[in-house]
Every structure is written in C-alpha cells, then in structure tokens.
Design brief:
Blueprint lengths: L8 E5 L4 H12 L3 E6 L2 H12 L5 E5 L5 H15 L4 E4 L14 H29 L2 E6 L12 H21 L4 E8 L5 H9 L3 H8 L12 H8 L10 E4 L8
Parallel strand pairs: 1-2, 1-4, 2-3, 4-5, 5-6, 6-7
The structure holds NADPH dihydro-nicotinamide-adenine-dinucleotide phosphate.
C-alpha cells in the first residue's frame, strides 16, 4: 500500500477553489505536481501560489472545459510543463437553480456541458497520455444529487447521475489499461457554489445541518484524503465506485 504521489502529475479541473482546491491541496501534499484549470485567471494564480507554498510544483491553465479544444490543450499543457499525466480530477461544475418548467435549453445545456460533457472530453483527452504513462487515475465529482432528486436541480441532477454512469463505463473500458476511474459524491460542502445555494433556497442551511449526522457542513479540506487515496496505488483494485464523502448525509433516513 502506497499513498505516495511523488513523480506523479495531476490535472484538477475547477482546481482554483472549493472542493477542487481541497483535492489539489491533498495531491500536492502527497508529492504530485498539480495543474489547476479554471476560467478565472486571478483565482488560478492564487491557487498556484497556495500549492507552491506547500512546496509542490504547480501550474494553472486558463480555459473552459466545456470546449473540446480546451480539454485537449489542458492535457498538452500538462505534458509540455511536467512531461507526463497520471491523475485527472474532473471537478469543474456549476448549478442553475430553477423549477424544471422554467429552464431555457441554453441553461440545460450549460449545466450538462460543464458538469458531465467536460468530464467525458477531459477523460478522452487524457487517455493517450495515461496509456503512455502505463496507467492512470480518473476521479469524477458527483453529488448527493447523483442519488437523490431535488425540485430545484433538474439538469444538475441529470448531470450528476450521468457522471456516476460515465464513471462505470470508463472504468470498464480502461481497466485493461490500468486506468482506474471512480466517482466521489460530496455531501453539502461550504464553497462558493453552496453559498449561493443558501441564498437561493430558503431553509437549506438548517435542513443540511439537521440531516447531516456529522452535524456540520463539509469543508474543502475534507476532500484531500479521498483524492490522495483514489489517486494512489492504494486504490489500484477500486474502479467504477461511487464513494460518498458526506458526513453520513446519504445514510440518514
Ligand atoms: P465552486 O463554485 O467553488 O467551484 C467550481 C469550480 O469549477 C471553480 O473552480 C470554477 O472555476 C470551475 N469551473 C466552472 N465552470 C467551468 C468551466 N466551464 N471551465 C473550467 N472550470 C470551470 O464549487 P464547488 O467546489 O462546490 O464544486 C466543485 C464540484 O463539486 C462541482 O462539480 C460541484 O457540482 C460538486 N459538488 C459540490 C457540492 C457542494 O456542496 N459544494 C456538493 C456536491 C457536489 P472558474 O470559475 O475559474 O472557471
């Protein structure tokens, strides 16, 4: 069993904040070189600074992962900068909260493209590099809405349910190539995304606290451990799994 990631190279989409930065931090602490990808240059630069302060090699790539060219360019950047690619965390995500009857097609597509299609495109772009590296680890970020429904989250829930099924298909296809693909399903975590949700959905904060057995919201730092485990050889016989990191939320009746 080995949790060491020295010499490994990781891409974390949406790694410039929230859960992505929590995972990037864990990977960096375990010795990986980390590339964070996001659209916001200032957030990218701050994340690189924070990762470098841990003594890690880090870089940022500005880009929109809904675009196939951007996903390919992201992998090319990792190869140009650090010479290989071993780990891909498909974490970039958004939500638009409305009742189902009120979404435009553009809003539906924007959520599906950002949360689900980007994971497919980045995984496809990473595959040749992982083959060359002799194997790899892909970690997709689902949600409690991979399991449950919510009136205000039609496209988001569809994207996150799809993420789990995509994870299983990639895991089956690429096991022969020593690429393990798993999903992490966060509970309610305190990030920019949910700070907005707390404004949009009255009573959400209290409901989350009441239902989460751990009695608190999660913190991005809660994702460092699962990222290291799923990125390391300690998880080599785990593939196609959907692992909750939710303080017990999904176990509560
Ligand atoms: P944040 O809003 O803090 O982070 C989202 C990240 O995604 C940002 O870094 C953002 O960077 C990036 N991003 C969004 N769209 C794009 C895009 N088109 N191209 C590139 N990067 C993009 O949210 P969280 O940390 O909370 O969410 C991270 C993941 O975890 C998401 O997939 C979310 O669905 C999931 N999740 C979160 C939960 C929570 O409670 N917080 C619960 C369950 C799942 P930038 O703006 O610079 O592009």
């Amino acid at each position: 069993m080995d949790l060491e990631l020295k010499g490994k190279v990781a891409i974390v989409t949406g790694g410039n904040g929230g859960i992505g930065l929590g995972m990037a931090t864990g990977l960096a602490q375990a010795g990986a070189a980390v590339i964070v990808a996001g659209r916001n240059a200032a957030k990218n630069a701050a994340a690189v600074k924070a990762l470098e302060a841990l003594g890690a090699k880090a870089a940022a790539v500005e880009g929109d992962v809904t675009q196939q060219d951007a996903c390919r360019a992201l992998v090319e950047s990792a190869l140009a900068r650090f010479g290989r690619l071993d780990i891909l965390v498909n974490n970039a995500g958004i939500n638009i909260r409305k009742q189902p009857q009120d979404y435009t097609l553009e809003e539906w597509n924007s959520v599906l493209d950002t949360n689900l299609t980007s994971a497919f495109l980045c995984s496809q772009a990473a595959y040749p590099a992982m083959l060359k590296a002799g194997g790899g680890k892909i970690i997709n970020i689902g949600s409690m809405l991979s399991i449950f429904g919510a009136a205000f989250a039609g496209p988001y829930g569809a994207s996150k349910g799809g993420t789990v099924q995509l994870t299983k298909s990639l895991a089956c296809a690429w096991a022969k190539d020593k690429i393990q693909v798993n999903a992490v399903l966060p509970g309610w975590i305190d990030t920019e995304l949910t700070r907005q949700a707390r404004k949009d959905v009255p009573g959400l904060h209290e409901r989350v606290l009441a239902r989460t057995p751990a009695g608190r919201w999660g913190d991005p730092g809660d994702f460092a451990g699962i990222a290291v485990f799923l990125a390391s050889s300690a998880s080599d016989f785990i593939s196609g799994a959907a692992i909750t990191v939710d303080g017990g939320y999904s176990s509560q009746a």
